[in-house]
Amino acid sequence: MAILLLHQLPQVRMLFPDNWFVRFLWYNLAVSKKNIFLLKTGFLEKGALAVSSILIIGIVIFETAAAALFISYLASQGGLGAKILGLVNFAALSGVDDAVRRIIHNDFSSSASYNLTVNNITTQVTVCKNLTYTGGTDCGSPALTDRYDVSSLATYLNKNKKYRSVVYVNPINSQVIIESIQEITTQ
Question: Are residues 53 and 104 in the same domain?
Fold first, then answer.
């Protein structure tokens, strides 16, 4: 508690007319017989109202910030999913392009299926010659000649893209023609 003599208070007030502490003492304190200033009960009630107002305003600001953070998180996740889907799509088409390059250069090992990694995304490429595609990794039964069936499946996280392409190689002049590329729905 502050102890001021009663006759000193006007001089202090005149020396510091804009001082908030002096105004606080002058208007909101009562003088007891021992010249000790005590708080009035009315001032305490106003203070309690200020505390509750500050708490309510703080809660509203906190809830607004939490909602903004949650909305920005959802927006960034939506953009991330689209980015991953674009990368998976690119990897699947790269698998088809790589298979066509291998067909042009006659670059196959004994296996008709191989894995290709593009941007840390694994792509399984299956190439079948002179066979009809029946789905999966099975190439099916013999059909049209001089045609390759290329299947490319790219998988990353929970995103899958699969493309199927039919490539014709002319036996006379060895010209390579991509007859079709189509997206196959995957589960």
Answer: no
Per DSSP, the residues of 141-156 read SB-STTEEEEEEEEEE
User: Do 135 and 172 fall within a single domain?
Assistant: yes
- Both 30 and 82 in one domain: the answer is no
Please tell me the pTM assigned to this model.
0.54
The pLDDT value recorded for residue 134 is 43
Q: What number of H helices and E strands is found in the chain?
A: 3, 7
Could you give the C-alpha distances from 100 to 54, 149, 181, in angstroms and in order?
69, 10, 11
Instruction: Give the whole-angstrom CA distance, residue 168 versus residue 74.
Output: 46
pLDDT band for 131, please (50, 70, 90 cuts): low
Burial of 43 (0-12, 13-18, 19+ CB in 10 A): middle
Residue in 69, 115, 112 with CA at minimum distance from that of residue 95: 115
Task: Decide if 68 is inside a domain.
Answer: no
| Tokens read off for 137 | 């990794």
What proportion of the chain, given as a percentage, has pLDDT over 90? 24
Please count the structural domains in the chain.
2
In terms of residue numbers, what domain contains 43? 6-60
Which tokens sit at 103? 């067909």
Same-domain status, 105 and 164: yes
